[in-house]
Design goal:
This protein is mostly helical and 109 residues long. The N and C termini lie far apart (109 Å). Helix content is 51%, strand content 0%.
């Protein structure tokens, strides 16, 4: 019976590789909107894809991020659905505001 077969030798533990903070700066075009500073905003907008295909891709990407953050979670609550409904109510009110404004000032006598 061979002893090395029963107790194989493992390599010595290697020390962790040091992580360098901010090796190189991220280009403004690749930053998220929340990470862009006010002075960098025109360059960030100029780097966006403003074609119809790019806008549709942006809307679908935003929907996917919203869905994965608020709806598709293990322990979800009513928050994500409530935000969606509140947004729908607010947009519906804005779309019909002119009609509602005229109804408000109409006299019924």
């Amino acid at each position: 019976m061979h002893l090395p077969l029963l107790f194989p030798s493992f390599p010595a533990a290697t020390p962790p590789v040091p992580v360098k903070m901010a090796d190189k700066p991220v280009p403004v075009v690749e930053k998220r909107l929340m990470d862009v500073k006010l002075g960098e905003l025109p360059r960030w907008v100029a780097g966006r894809n403003l074609t119809p295909t790019g806008l549709v891709a942006g809307v679908f990407g935003a929907y996917d991020r919203y869905y994965n953050k608020y709806i598709n979670v293990k322990k979800g609550g009513i928050g994500g659905v409530a935000m969606f409904l509140f947004g729908y109510v607010a947009i519906s009110y804005l779309w019909s505001y002119e009609h509602l404004k005229h109804d408000r000032w109409r006299k019924y006598h």
